[in-house]
Task: inverse folding
């Protein structure tokens, strides 16, 4: 009878009541479109006391559409088991060519205990990712453009002022090249010259 009670007690201790799962490697990894994942995804499973739990079934689930891909088995679901340190590794994801963030749903289960977590990874845009360099260079030219327009406006204003002075002093028939050489007291109307003041 005592042996039976001891066996039942040890069985109760052996059962896992609570599981905790944590991603310890691969979170936020950025992968090239159409390639295999850059680094493995690893999780650690512990019990309520923080002790690693061995032989826990860990399933990984990829999204059905959008950014994502398939596992090494060609499916969107893969299952592995934790080792003596409570760790489970997923080494192969073949990424599709849809850029963006995707979620990997991870579920750990042993006996009646279960735990779940979401891990996020990314598929880069590949060569399109070089595009941000272009705004930087164009941004530099935009910084200089106000100065360029100020200079052009100043030149235009000077030209307009000079044109107004020429028109006011010389009339519409005078040649602009001869105007600066003309004396300030000389007014030309048509052909003859009229001198005001001392000759």
Result:
């Amino acid at each position: 009878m005592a042996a039976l009670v001891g066996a039942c007690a040890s069985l109760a201790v052996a059962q896992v009541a609570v599981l905790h799962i944590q991603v310890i490697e691969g979170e936020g990894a950025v992968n090239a479109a159409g390639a295999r994942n850059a680094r493995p995804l690893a999780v650690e499973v512990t019990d309520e006391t923080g002790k690693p739990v061995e032989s826990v079934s860990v399933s990984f689930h990829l999204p059905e559409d959008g950014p994502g891909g398939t596992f090494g088995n060609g499916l969107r679901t893969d299952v592995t088991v934790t080792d003596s340190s409570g760790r489970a590794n997923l080494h192969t994801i073949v990424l599709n060519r849809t850029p963006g963030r995707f979620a990997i749903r991870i579920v750990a289960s042993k006996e009646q205990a279960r735990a779940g977590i979401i891990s996020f990874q990314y598929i880069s845009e590949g060569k399109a990712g070089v595009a941000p360099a272009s705004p930087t260079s164009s941004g530099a030219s935009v910084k200089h453009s106000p100065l360029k327009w100020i200079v052009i406006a100043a030149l235009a204003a000077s030209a307009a002022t000079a044109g107004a002075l020429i028109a006011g002093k010389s009339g519409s028939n005078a040649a602009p090249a001869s105007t600066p050489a003309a004396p300030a007291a000389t007014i030309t109307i048509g052909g003859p010259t009229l001198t005001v003041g001392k000759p």
Notes: Residues 133-170 form the longest helix (38 residues).
